[in-house]
Amino acid sequence: MLLKLSELSCSPALNPNEMLKATITAQAPSRAKGDLKKATVSHLRRLLNSPQRIMRYFQHPKLHDAA
């Protein structure tokens, strides 16, 4: 699930790295270190198999300058 920029409560000047982090932490089952690590590894493995999803981080209108 790719978050819309309006769903994020961060700064308006997000870059793809911040958007990825927000996506991972929003899906994390807990804020405990072990659970967050497990969710991060799982999410990044899914991204490895989905280059289109990675491209969408850079093609977002608000993040277009980062690409």
Provide a descriptive summary of the structure in words:
The protein has 67 residues and is mainly alpha-helical. The chain has one domain (14-66). It is 55% helix and 0% strand. It is built from three helices and no strands. The radius of gyration is 12 Å and the shape is flat. The two termini are 21 Å apart. The mean pLDDT is 72.
Query: What is the element string, with H for helices and E for strands?
Result: HHH
pLDDT < 50 runs, ≥5 residues: none
- DSSP strand tally: 0
How much is the radius of gyration in Å? 12 Å
**Residue-averaged pLDDT:** 72
Number of helices: 3
Structural class: mainly alpha
Indicate the overall shape: flat
What is the secondary structure topology, with strand pairs?
Elements: H1 16-27, H2 33-48, H3 51-59
What descriptors fit this protein?
67 residues; mainly alpha; 3 helices; 55% helix
Brief overview:
With 67 residues, the chain is mostly helical. The chain is 55% helix and 0% strand. It contains 3 helices and no strands.
